[in-house]
Structure formats: structure tokens, C-alpha cells
Design brief:
heterodimer, A: 117 residues, mainly beta, four-stranded antiparallel beta sheet, B: 111 residues, five-stranded antiparallel beta sheet, 11 strands
């Protein structure tokens, strides 16, 4: 099956610093990728839709200046948490849909756990 | 906006027993996805249903979407410890890939 890889899997940073998380589709191209956030023992909440070559679309309540998304190629989207604070500590997970397939399948990365001290 | 309600929220079963997890939508489902997640890890795609009355099976897991396309069930036959985890249903249009998730059902299987 299709593979989506996230890096880093775990990151610890100091409050006020910025952290970049990468989401790569390893064996397919994805025009669109999605970023979710998951707090402990809660479900996934969609943050934004990452569009290759254009601006990301953010869900209501998600600060676009806080969570910068860049989709520079058909296989890579990045999420940068700027000026991170402890309340940004969470599990961030991305998903991608193969552009060439019309099966509707969506594949998720392994997730990235961010801890802000 | 669409909301998904999963039940039960948690489930503990004895190994070998069958179980069912339900997912109910406030609106008509255009695509219903089932995923499994180990806590703190990524999601494993299980199945996707699109048509009313559709049913799919993979190994010991069967998922169904009702005719009205507002409710789906996930049934595990003869459960094993390897089935333990968090089961999530997600809904969205298959042509967008944007999903809204239910709150998840945590399954424990006792040996």
C-alpha cells in the first residue's frame, strides 16, 4: 500500500521556538495533503488542507500565522509551528490522497509528537 | 456541519468473542472510512464505503454502510489481542480527501 512518512516522529522544543514537521508521500504524488491534530485520548481534528502550489486552507479556529503550511512539491508538505507554546504540545498527523488513483483511499503518516517545554 | 458519533466509546472483550462498533452521522455520508490506531501512532486504513447497503470484509473485519448512508458498523469476528486499539470512523467526500472523525472507540481484547 501507499506510504506516507512524517519526520520527525518526536520533537521537544523550548517555548518560543519554531518547529517544522514534514509529511512525504513516498510512492505516489499528492496534490492535496491534510494536517490533523490529536490531543491525548481525543479524536483527530482537521487543521488545514495543504494544496500544492497554492495557499493552504485552514479550518475555523486554526491560526494560519501560527501554523504555517507549505506544499512545495507533489510529494512534500510541511507544517511549521511558530513561536510554540506548551498548549501547542500535541500529536500532529498528516494524510494524503494519491492524485493518480480514484479509489478514494487516504493514507496517513505515522504522526509527529510535539512537546513544548 | 457534519458530526459523527461512535459507540461504544470503549469496549473490553474476551479473546474469541465477536464485537460491533457503530458510527452514526448527522448527515448523509458520501464516503465512510474506518481506521485503526494504536495510541500515539499513525492510522491504518481498514476500509472505505461509499454506496448505500455496501459491505466489505478484510480478514475478520466486516464493515457495512446502511441504505440511508447515515450509519456504519464495524464487526470483528473471533477477536484477537492483535485487534486491540482505537477504531476511528471518518466521513467525507472521496474526491476531496477531507475527513471529519468520530471520537473513536477503544478496544481491549483480553487473552
Amino acid at each position: 500500500g501507499a506510504v506516507v512518512s512524517q519526520h520527525p516522529s518526536r520533537v521537544i522544543c523550548k517555548s518560543g521556538t519554531s518547529v517544522k514537521i514534514e509529511c512525504r508521500s513516498l510512492d505516489f504524488q499528492a496534490t492535496t495533503m491534510f494536517w490533523y491534530r490529536q490531543f491525548p485520548k481525543q479524536s483527530l481534528m482537521l487543521m488545514a488542507t495543504s494544496n500544492e502550489g497554492s495557499k493552504a486552507t485552514y479550518e475555523q479556529g486554526v491560526e494560519k500565522d501560527k501554523f504555517l503550511i507549505n506544499h512545495a512539491s507533489l510529494t512534500l508538505s510541511t507544517l511549521t509551528v511558530t513561536s510554540a507554546h506548551p498548549e501547542d504540545s500535541s500529536f500532529y498527523i498528516c494524510s494524503a490522497r494519491p492524485t493518480s488513483r480514484n479509489t478514494g483511499e487516504l493514507f496517513f503518516g505515522e504522526g509527529s509528537r510535539l512537546t513544548v517545554l | 456541519s457534519q458530526e459523527l458519533e461512535q459507540s461504544p466509546q470503549s469496549l473490553i472483550v474476551q479473546e474469541g468473542k465477536n464485537l460491533t462498533i457503530n458510527c452514526t452521522s448527522s448527515k448523509t455520508l458520501y464516503g465512510l472510512y474506518w481506521y485503526k490506531q494504536k495510541y500515539g501512532e499513525g492510522l491504518i486504513f481498514l476500509m472505505m464505503l461509499q454506496k448505500g447497503g455496501e459491505e466489505k470484509s478484510h480478514e475478520k473485519i466486516t464493515a457495512k454502510l446502511d441504505e440511508k448512508k447515515q450509519q456504519s458498523s464495524l464487526h470483528i469476528t473471533a477477536s484477537q489481542p492483535s485487534h486491540a486499539g482505537i477504531y476511528l470512523c471518518g466521513a467525507g467526500a472521496s474526491n476531496t480527501g477531507k475527513l471529519i472523525f468520530g471520537q473513536g472507540t477503544t478496544l481491549q481484547v483480553k487473552p
